[in-house]
Design goal:
The chain has 1185 residues and is an alpha+beta fold. Helix content is 32%, strand content 29%. A hairpin with a 2-residue loop joins strand 29 (298-301) and strand 30.
Length: 1185
Amino acid sequence: MRAVLAWKETIREQCVYDLAFKPDGSQLIIAAGLRVLVYDATDGSIIQPLKGHKDIVYCVAYAKDGKRFASGSADKSIIIWTSKLEGILKYTHNDSIQCVAYNPVTHQLASCSSGDFGLWSPEQKSVNKHKVSSKITCCGWTNDGQYLALGMMNGVVSIRNKNGEEKVKIERPGGSSSPIWSIAWNPSKDEHNDILAVADWGQKLSFYQLSGKQIGKDRTLTYDPCCVGYFSKGEYIVMGGSDKQASLYTKDGVRLGTIGEQNSWVWTCRVKPDSNFVVLGCQDGTIACYQLIFSTVHGLYKDRYAYRDSMTDVIVQHLITEQKVRIKCRELVKKIAIYRNRLAIQLPEKILIYELYSDDSSDMHYRVKEKICRKFECNLLVVCSQHIILCQEKRLQCLSFNSVREKEWVMESLIRYIKVIGGPPGREGLLVGLKNGAILKIFVDNPFPITLLKLTTSVRCLDMSASRNKLAVVDEHNTLLVYDIKSKELLFQEPNANSVAWNTQCEDMLCFSGNGYLNIKASNFPVHQQKMQGFMVGYNGSKIFCLHVYSMSAVEVPQSAPMYQYLERKMFKEAYQIACLGVTDSDWRDLATEALEGLDFETAKKAFIRIRDLRYLELINSIEERKKRGENDNDLFLADVYAYQGKFHEAARLYKRTGHESRALSMYTDLRMFDYAKEFVGVTDPKSSRMLMTKQADWAKSSKEPRAAAEMYLSAGEHLKAIDIIGEHGWADMLIDIARKLDKAEREPLAKCALHFKRLKHHGYASETYSKMGDLKALVHLHVETRHWEEAFSLVEKHPQFKNDVFVPYAQWLAENDRFEEAQKAFHKAGLQNEAVKVLEQLTQNAVVENRFNDAGYYYWMLSMQCLDIAKESEEQRGEMLKKFERFQHLAELYHVYRSIQRYTDEPFSSHMPDTLFNICRFLLNNLTKDIPPGISKVNTLYALAKQSRQLGAYKLARYAYEKLQELHIPSRFQESTELGSLTIRSKPFHDKEDLIEGMMCYRCSTNNPLLNNHGSVCINCRQPFIYCASSYDVLPLVQFYLEEDISDEDALSLIDLEVPHTDQRAARWQDIDNGDLQSLRMDEGLDDEEEDPFTAKMSFEQGGSNFVPVKVSRSVLRAMSRRDVLIKRWPRPLKWEYFRSLLPEVSITMCPTCFKMFHSEDYELLVLQHNCCPYCRRPIDEPN
């Protein structure tokens, strides 16, 4: 470390008590006499003196934000100045001001006097003052601005918070005999704790944590310290005092050296922010600014680099692995030398020699081997295995590790450069360069130096090549000179060099740096240049070690440039050596290829092994085998190489020259280069041409270029082979072109095309091909396979013979996709009645299980119609199917009805009127006399009936329902309601409402029937079945009649339609009957014979008979009927039509033409509007009957 005086000023007859830098380092504020002086920090010129104090100014401080500074004086006042040098505020204390300090964060100002300290901030007008017991000499804020430390005359350091309350008190052992004279907080951001440096007049320097705990021991000083200050990053401390000089210390208090000696006490010293400039202020008025220059102390051996850090530590860096190790010496490190496993460190009073723990090349653990406890003065230090070499100007001294001086060499001129170049332990060789240009070789065990060369100019840098044959020198004119050591001949020289190094792994390569460039020179080829900062100090393999300012780094330099230089001169072996140092894969490939073409098979083989190229290795192997067998035609070998590299025409030329035309031909045919082959053969040789043609065809067959192959087959008329290739690769566009060009008679290729289209899912193309062939069956199957049902159906319309081929798979597909109703219809269409019935039965079963009774009713109705269809077609199944028809019709009606009851009991709201529900329950119970179908609950029915009967006043029926319920197992949800109902119904009269009973009148015999009937839905008197409205289940005024045996349905229809009888008087008569006593429907009570309705006569029956007597009519009776009063259920064969006569023509009745259910017309219309179909058979309303 050197201190260079930058500038010096003297203020006559004034003591400089304090100084402060503006935070940007541009100005210096000085407290001198009665004035505050502002200097330019760069050259020491005065900018302006500031007047304002009436007594000596003791202290100054600048705010961290650079906006204002403060000065304190013996006149007890503090003035705050702006950065524009204008005073803006003044306040006073009761005593003279000793020190001031700005908070680095809040910019609060602490001002300290002999008896108190004050805290002032720009926001508040007043100053908070706090009394202290002793005079304050110095103060300082922590980096975070939370605490203020005060140093006092009585040897106490008081640490206060921002409000002035004492938090920590540090009492120094000397007490008031060693007053605290200066304190400073370490500004480093890397320290974990706040560290306070305390200097007292007990001549001690100490360090404390914020908690008051001391760090380390007191450092004894030889003087009274007046000022202590840190560098901006906290790495060094500057201190001055009664020894009339400023000294530099490490942050731990180790003295490093003197900064500047003065003629009087140094009262104040400050470091310029973020720089190496230190300014001192002295008692005699001197202000001196010094620049500190820290020289680099370092050493390098191969890939280990040792350098000084923080002046007292040594860091050893492994340049390849990037590992680092720090050796703490706790004293100023003056010199460092490193060689193999040795490291020498010179300290002020001793030299330490370290060695590595192990021989491992990456081991970084050093231990002390020897200590030489003597003070040496030397310019250069070198370490060997068993010696250290000290160089002092012209003299070289060799000392053993136990400090015995073994040899001494005195040179004729100053030593400028020294380097160990290796050798056996204890006999190493040194390379020495002198100022007069002499270059010597000295062996440690030889007292006589050997002169290698004598230059005319001074030596700056030296290096010897790996095999000790060449010497590279950089002289003071920055010229690089390379000599052959044996012949002393200058091999070449290069300008602009500041350092040089030979490659430790390659004899012929060296690199040198200069002018911001790195230069690499191989053999005597031109220099390869690239940009680089700093200068290089070593060259190992492909790594160049480069020192930039203080940091050493290993730069990976690919050795491509020199390798290519060797390749250009066909020096393959040397190029291979360079490549081994480190080149890219593509460089290796280039080297391998060049060597192969140069027929240096040895090098080519090594290079191909590097890049693992088996193909070329096989070629080299085969060539070597052929050489062993005695082949030596290099042209032929080269032709093979060219063929491998893809240079086919060069290869063919060489084959021709060596008389191996057949090789060229087979090469071309193997490569499918048939055009070149034909060219090579020429027109003259028909035999070869024919062979070529067959080869071309064979190749097309096994080709990996199928499109070309297919095109060749097509041109050869081999359609089938072409179609196979095209189909295999799925080129549908090409295939359809072929299919369109083929004649429709060529069925086999067309069928193949269609098959490929099917496989490639090109439905359109396939159907086009089948249509062209006229293969309808295949077309139908195609539509079915691809699920193009619409096209299939349109085909079936034209060709009904394929009906089964379409509808059966369609139905199966529908069934698989859960579209069972459609599937059933499709089976039906296909004529597979049994399948249709099976699907329907399954559907019905599912609907019942899932309580979808509406659907169950509908499916049963459909089932019954299916059975009817089967009965129509099949004679032998007719009886069975008709029975099934009856059963399914009956079940359909039961489930249809039960849906309403299930909704009433299971859902919160019912859409039915009470009387409808009442009728439904009765209808169901009347028909549930024998077996109860699955899913239908008698409990639910009775429960609903009981509720509705009670509501409508049929109390007797309600009581009956409740009694019946008691006999059954009732679900818990109905239990309470049922029991309550059973009790409360007993309070009601034991009969049913009259109008309810009248609603059950038989329209044939006018008997009033009971509300519940064991015989089912028939009159108890005449056994005539009741006809119900299929929505409200009211009894309709209809009576069924039968035709006499000889009347066919067509005859009956024509007789009824013959003429309409007179309606006026008939209407009046029916009106009479309707208004009269309903019991008097007898024909013998006062009506004239000729006016009597012949049908009414037929309705009479024998009273008291238990068998049902149907109403049979003759032709005359039919003729007397009006078409308006007759409803006909026109069942398909083998069923007979059913005829019904309305006895109240004014009651409008509608019959569904599909399911033949009867409805009150207005009910039917409403339901149709709601559902858009018949509520029973779901026939869409717009469907034609």
